[in-house]
Design a protein that fits this description.
Chain lengths: 123, 172
């Protein structure tokens, strides 16, 4: 006769909760990264709009260096944003899978009459 | 030179292989579910349809009207116009052409059905076999994932539609 393990169900529910926490972190990280990207973009736009007084070769070199630095910052922020988006999507996928497993596991245990109370409270 | 065995990679490959079999079995199940019914069942279905249509036509048909003296009462055409309009198959069966209609419908249905056909018993037996195979593969998959977890790899996700009757089983 098949014997079922409350500890296995507990683990599945733990995985679901851990996945939810990871998704929350990933969302927070994504928001922070968006702010960083917008800030870098704004700095570049401000620089492009600003009036630059160029009088010497040195001024040209400084202008080029500033433009390169700000453009690179936007590029890096954009890469970070893409990575944060991917992480968030992966975290959401894991939440979806683990939530589905936890749901079916809890329903199965409840139907069979062995759903532990501590898990019932976490439904 | 012999390739060095990598147990983790082997386990992952085995899980992939089992999951591919599960996909195949699911497709096979869908195929069997949607396959045509048997020749005998087509015949029975057609006979039932024609019989129902004939009964409907008979409820409308008023043959006594055909022998009625003109101008005495309604339906002196036996209500045939209404019978034909509402139910041609029933009208033909009513007039003794039921066998011809049945044979023609069975021939049309047979010509239009494609792929292997199953009787209800055959289909049921085939679905039971597929479900058994599916459960066996799911048990193998679960054992492989547990081996992976025992090796310290906890990142392998179970399928979202994994069977709780299998992934919640205690150790035997």
């Amino acid at each position: 006769m098949a014997t079922y393990s409350p500890s296995r169900l507990r683990r599945v529910v733990d995985q679901r909760d851990a996945a939810r926490a990871s998704l929350k972190t990933a969302n927070t990280r994504l928001e922070e990264t968006k702010l960083g990207f917008r800030s870098a973009e704004r700095a570049l736009q401000d620089f492009e709009r600003s009036r630059v007084d160029i009088r010497s070769e040195r001024d040209i070199a400084k202008f080029d260096a500033d433009l390169t630095r700000l453009s690179k910052a936007v590029e890096e922020a954009s890469e970070l944003l893409a990575a944060a988006n991917r992480s968030r999507d992966e975290a959401a996928e894991i939440v979806s899978v683990t939530a589905s497993l936890a749901h079916s596991g809890i329903e199965f245990a409840a139907a069979a009459g062995w759903l532990p109370n501590d898990i019932r409270e976490r439904c | 030179m012999l390739k060095r065995k990598n147990p983790l990679r082997d386990l992952l490959a085995d899980i992939e292989s089992v999951r591919a079999k599960l996909v195949d079995l699911r497709m096979e199940r869908r195929h069997v579910e949607r396959s045509p019914i048997s020749q005998q069942e087509i015949g029975e279905r057609v006979a039932r349809i024609v019989e129902e249509r004939e009964a409907e036509a008979r409820a409308l048909f008023a043959p006594e009207g055909l022998s009625r003296q003109d101008g005495v009462g309604f339906l002196d055409d036996g209500n045939l116009a209404a019978v034909e309009r509402s139910n041609l198959i029933g009208a033909l069966a009513l007039l003794g052409l039921g066998d011809t209609v049945r044979q023609s419908l069975v021939a049309e249905a047979t010509a239009a059905s494609s792929g292997k056909s199953y009787s209800a018993d055959q289909r049921s037996a085939e679905l039971i076999r597929i479900d058994k195979d599916f459960a066996t593969q799911e048990r193998i998959e679960e054992a492989l994932i547990r081996s992976l977890e025992d090796s310290g790899v906890t990142s392998m996700l179970r399928r979202p539609d994994a069977n709780p009757a299998i992934f919640l089983l205690g150790e035997t």
